[in-house]
Write a structure and sequence with these properties.
Layout: E1 6-8, H1 17-20, H2 22-35, E2 45-47, H3 49-58, H4 61-74, E3 80-82, H5 85-88, H6 90-99, E4 103-105, H7 111-124, E5 133-135, H8 138-151
Parallel strand pairs: 3-4, 4-5
Antiparallel strand pairs: 1-2
Length: about 150
């Protein structure tokens, strides 16, 4: 039985990336398609983005996050985020930029789109010369460099 907060692999596929993330969506695809072919894929479940949002809202964590990041900025300390959310949800990356996060780790397939969004947002906020530091896997740095050289 699924809910808004938990989805079983048999219920999710690639179209569910925004709600369950890329890895869980892929596991759902494998479970549904390979099991039917006789390949043994263990069943499992994904905790949804809605669950995490609910927990943050319920615990007033957004305000607490703002307080912590404001404190870091006042003390000129760097802050970074590593995780799936900025890659899957452009609004999360935008939220983090507005909060003052200066480093975000992204999945390689979302780097170019997120970079474009961040550049646009930073210009809107009036700080267009302060580009986020992206933590990339070395094999994807070349792809980013090629894209930048095309834009310059």
């Amino acid at each position: 039985m699924s809910s808004k907060y938990v989805k079983w692999f048999k219920e999710i596929g690639i179209e569910d990336v925004p709600e369950v993330g890329g890895k869980n969506a892929s596991l759902g695809e494998m479970y549904q398609n390979l099991t039917a072919e006789g390949v043994r894929v263990p069943d499992g479940f994904a905790v949804t983005a809605s669950a995490y949002k609910y927990i943050l809202d319920y615990n007033d964590a957004w305000r607490k996050l703002h307080e912590q990041l404001d404190d870091l900025q006042r003390n000129k300390r760097h802050s970074g985020i590593c995780g799936q959310a900025p890659s899957d949800y452009p609004e999360v990356a935008e939220f983090l930029v507005k909060l003052g996060i200066d480093s975000i780790s992204l999945n390689p397939d979302s780097v170019l789109k997120t970079l474009q969004d961040v550049v646009r947002l930073e210009k809107e906020l009036g700080g267009g010369d302060k580009l986020l530091n992206f933590v990339l896997k070395p094999m994807y740095v070349r792809k980013l460099q090629e894209w930048i050289s095309e834009k310059v």
